């Protein structure tokens, strides 16, 4: 763990140095944690922390609980009253670690929201490289398991899973009404697993931006953990060819579809090019052999005079 300047963090969020291309694995995704409120951290006032090491989902959960102090707010019975009303866990499906270094972002609203939230909060912590396909299962399951083991049975009572913004808005409204009676922090897990778009086709960045804006305006005390687990990583991991082969086998056995996807088209183009190259090579070799087979006389006789 090391302290970085705000300018360096800005570069990390939008343009990771070229070293990131060399050492980052294609099976990693970033995670960001921030809070605009103080809730008794040992290094209160310190912000813009970046943990450059590659961590597993379980390691991420431990760091969130211990280093980010979530064990003091999500585990009931330790403080007597809640210092934070809401801990939001947002499971995204867009960002890869290498995406942070690209000039053109697929979802610029998402990166802008993460950048602004990370740099403007009182405490923020970044994990650029979270191994989302290390055999430990999904990031969501790893977080829930580690939180439950640390907090005990009380955590399951405070955990709420939602997949729409309206449910969170209703929760925040109810929280503000009974704010004086609140004794523990509830954890809301917002996951878009299996869905590419929600709420009328809004992008992931628009959903996150809307949630953060709503929390800011409500006056609720909150902290947010954004974790990215892209579809191709979380679903297939490092065994893409095998998983694709099994999926295509099941599909062909259930239906007689002849649809060719992008990988199929690429293989067909390569195979076609190989056949053309072999044909041209055979023509070239045949032509050279024919030319070498032509036998011409060394000298010509002088024509006789009549």
TrEMBL record:
Q: For this UniProt entry, what's an example GO CC term?
A: membrane
Query: Which N-terminal residues, if any, form the signal peptide?
Result: 1-24
Where would you say this protein principally sits, based on its record? Answer: membrane
Location within or outside the cell: Membrane
Question: What sections of the protein cross the membrane?
Answer: 274-294
Query: Could you tell me the membrane topology recorded for this protein?
Result: Single-pass membrane protein
Q: Which UniProt keywords apply?
A: Membrane, Signal, Transmembrane, Transmembrane helix
Q: Which residues belong to any copy of the V-type proton ATPase subunit S1/VOA1 transmembrane domain?
A: 270-301
Q: What is this protein called?
A: V-type proton ATPase subunit S1/VOA1 transmembrane domain-containing protein
């Amino acid at each position: 763990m090391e302290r970085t300047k705000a300018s360096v963090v800005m570069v990390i969020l939008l343009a990771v140095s070229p070293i990131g291309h060399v050492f980052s694995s294609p099976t990693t995704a970033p995670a960001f944690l921030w809070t605009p409120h103080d809730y008794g951290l040992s290094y209160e006032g310190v912000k813009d922390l970046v943990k450059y090491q590659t961590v597993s989902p379980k390691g991420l959960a431990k760091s969130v609980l211990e280093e980010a102090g979530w064990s003091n707010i999500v585990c009931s019975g330790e403080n007597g009253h809640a210092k934070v009303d809401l801990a939001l866990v947002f499971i995204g499906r867009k960002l890869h670690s290498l995406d942070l270094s690209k000039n053109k972002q697929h979802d610029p609203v998402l990166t802008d929201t993460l950048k602004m939230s990370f740099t403007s909060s009182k405490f923020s912590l970044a994990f650029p490289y979270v191994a989302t396909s290390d055999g430990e299962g999904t990031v969501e399951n790893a977080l829930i398991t580690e939180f439950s083991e640390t907090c005990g049975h009380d955590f399951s009572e405070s955990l709420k899973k939602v997949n729409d913004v309206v449910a969170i808005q209703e929760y925040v409204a109810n929280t503000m009404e009974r704010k004086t009676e609140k004794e523990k922090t509830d954890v809301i897990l917002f996951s878009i697993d299996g869905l590419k778009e929600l709420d009328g086709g809004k992008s992931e960045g628009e959903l996150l931006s809307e949630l953060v804006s709503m929390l800011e305006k409500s006056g609720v005390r909150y902290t947010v953990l954004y974790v990215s687990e892209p579809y191709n990583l979380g679903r297939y991991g490092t065994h893409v060819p095998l998983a694709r082969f099994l999926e295509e086998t099941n599909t062909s056995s259930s239906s007689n579809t002849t649809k060719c996807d992008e990988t199929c088209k690429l293989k067909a183009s390569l195979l076609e090019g190989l056949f053309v190259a072999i044909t041209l090579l055979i023509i070239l070799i045949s032509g050279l052999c024919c030319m070498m087979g032509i036998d011409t006389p060394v000298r010509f006789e002088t024509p006789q005079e009549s």
